[in-house]
Write a structure and sequence with these properties.
Chain A: One of its GO terms (molecular function) is DNA-binding transcription factor activity. The complex is a heterodimer. By secondary structure, chain A is mostly helical. Chain A has helices at 3-32, 35-56, 62-80, 82-85, 88-101, 105-119, 126-137, 142-148, 153-169, 179-184, 186-202, 207-224, 229-243, 268-281, 289-306, 311-324, 328-340, 344-354, 364-376, 380-393, 397-411. Chain A has 21 helices and no strands. The chains are: A mainly alpha, B alpha+beta. The interface between A and B is medium-sized, with 24 and 25 residues.
Chain lengths: 412, 120
């Protein structure tokens, strides 16, 4: 096999493996009651897959293939373990269950959501719940998760290891919680669905798959808990973004900012769906961050459709969001909106204050916003410097090109 | 932890790049270094001259052999490096993906052995 051929095979294998990861770890840990050991078994299966698939091709049912290898690995482990070796009958039973489960796709898919709620168990440390879901159910890497939570990959890794050890030591059960319990466990579940969606949004290659999966999971949560407003808010929020996906790139692949997007390319069916969900969620007044964030999206979309500027409304919405879910990202977005209502100086003050936060040092949206605000204020040198850092932080050629154009406009 | 990002690229293709594109690529590399510096991850960087100016030196017994480049029939040659200081391999890979050189060649990521690893 040629080098490029095996690279293509490997990429395909990695993609399939990544898509299956969450489903399989949910299934295996549900059976084994031990997240870390389920992940070990799957790691072996994935390594084997990455060796074999590029050469032999991806099997028809990759999930079943991976489960078979993981099952063998578990059996080997158990055989080595002398205490458990006595219960040979029990082992055979589990092995049978695992192989029959490999043929049941629907069952595995539902288990993923069950595991998400299990990871939100009250006995698991609050700060580990969402990262745990992201890693074990949605298959994001520790580095991706760390970047999202603005902590170092090492600190995030330790947090995850501690959480898994606790699950094992305390024997925290991986069962679907009772219906009344589901609502209490919602916040980390919703947070991880949204994080998976936005990771997909930024990561160009895996974008489609992870984004679709997040939307699917959110709609399952909505149908599971129809009386809760926040899942509807979240689903609306993601649908607003999804509706604009095809307008984010020009035909030659260049990045198109919201202001420059062709409204005709927007998916109006999805937008209507989002509007409806947001109305239902807000029926008794907005109560949570996803509803506010969806309202912000709604205001952006309405402005482009009607041509009427409503930046004042946007600033107010960011004020509310900053109160219920403060974060540097909210401060950043609010600053961008402030510029539009003529308060660029105030915006620049906020932006400069954020610079003291080391988490902003390699945060691309920070440098883009800083560059644009400086450009609007005619501070060309500072704008060019910020554009330069932003270009250096890009990994998409399209976005790099877009920023290079903006920088040369400032320098003209 | 320190990592070396080794930039491999096709020298022949590099020589035929139009001057204006070359200016753009150099600008991207400058921007990349600025970003590394802002994130306090930058240690050092250098570009190497063409592999045709390289020489390979070997000593076998009392025999010293010096072989002038180009020394190997491979498409991509080692042409420059960044040394960065980041928390772990994931983060090093992330910076490698941001390196503009990754779009026209390959960036190899290697951890630099820490002096403490020699102890004991």
């Amino acid at each position: 096999m040629t080098v490029s051929g095996s690279t293509v095979g490997r990429t395909a294998a990695e993609r399939v493996a990544r898509e299956s990861y969450g489903r399989l770890v949910s299934y295996l840990s549900g059976r084994l009651g031990d997240l870390a050991s389920a992940e070990d078994a799957l790691a072996t299966a994935f390594l084997t897959a990455l060796e074999k698939w590029p050469v032999d091709g991806v099997p028809d049912n990759p999930d079943a293939w991976l489960l078979t290898i993981a099952r063998r690995r578990k059996l080997d482990d158990w055989r080595k373990d002398k205490v458990k070796a006595k219960s040979a009958d029990h082992l055979a039973l589990i092995a049978e269950e695992l192989s029959s489960a490999a043929k049941m796709d629907g069952d595995i898919a539902d288990r993923r959501l069950a595991l998400m709620f299990a990871c939100a168990h009250p006995d698991i440390d609050v700060s580990a719940r969402t990262p745990l879901i992201l890693q074990t159910v949605l298959g994001l890497t520790a580095a991706d998760i760390a970047a999202r939570f603005f902590v170092s990959p090492r600190a995030m890794g330790q947090r995850l290891v501690r959480a898994k050890a606790r699950i094992k030591d305390e024997k925290i059960p991986f069962l679907v919680p009772e219906k009344e319990e589901l609502s209490h466990r919602l916040p980390p579940v919703l947070a991880s669905i949204y994080a998976a969606y936005t990771s997909g949004w930024m990561d160009i290659d895996g974008a489609q798959a992870l984004g679709q999966e997040a939307i699917w999971l959110a709609s399952v949560v909505v149908s599971l808990l129809p009386q809760e407003p926040e899942p509807k808010g979240l689903l609306a929020l993601m649908l607003y973004s999804e509706a604009r996906r095809s307008s984010r790139r020009s035909p030659d692949g260049a990045f198109v900012p919201l202001d420059g997007q062709d409204v005709g390319l927007w998916d109006h069916k999805r937008l209507r769906l989002a509007e409806g969900l947001l109305r239902e969620a807000n029926a008794n007044g907005p109560t949570g961050r996803y509803q506010i964030e969806a309202a912000i999206q709604s205001a952006h979309v309405a402005r482009r459709l009607s041509g009427i500027s409503n930046w004042h409304a946007l600033v107010s919405l960011y004020d509310v969001l900053g109160r219920i879910a403060p974060s540097p990202v909210v401060t950043l977005n609010r600053s961008v909106a402030l510029v539009r209502i003529g308060q660029a100086e105030a915006a620049l003050g906020h932006i400069h204050a954020l610079a003291a936060d080391p988490r902003m040092a390699d945060y691309l949206p920070y440098w883009t916003a800083r560059a644009q605000i400086c450009a609007d204020l005619g501070r060309h040198v500072e704008a060019a410097e910020a554009f330069t850092v932003a270009i250096g932080l890009c990994w998409s050629e399209a976005e790099r090109r877009h920023l290079e154009e903006q920088r040369s406009n400032v320098l003209c | 932890m320190r990592y070396m990002l080794m930039l491999h690229a096709d020298e022949a293709a590099g020589r035929s790049i139009e001057p204006e594109d070359m200016v753009r690529f150099m600008g991207q590399m400058y921007a990349y270094q600025q970003a590394l510096e802002k994130a306090a991850a930058f240690v050092s960087s250098n570009a190497l001259v063409s592999s045709s100016e390289a020489s390979l030196v070997r000593v076998q017994g009392n025999e010293i052999s010096v072989l002038d480049g180009p020394y190997a029939d491979v498409r991509e040659q080692f042409g420059g490096y960044f040394i960065i200081d980041v928390a772990d391999t994931d983060e090093a890979n992330k910076w490698a993906a941001r390196c503009p050189a990754a779009t026209w060649g390959t960036v190899e990521v290697r951890r630099i052995r820490d002096s403490s690893e020699y102890a004991g």
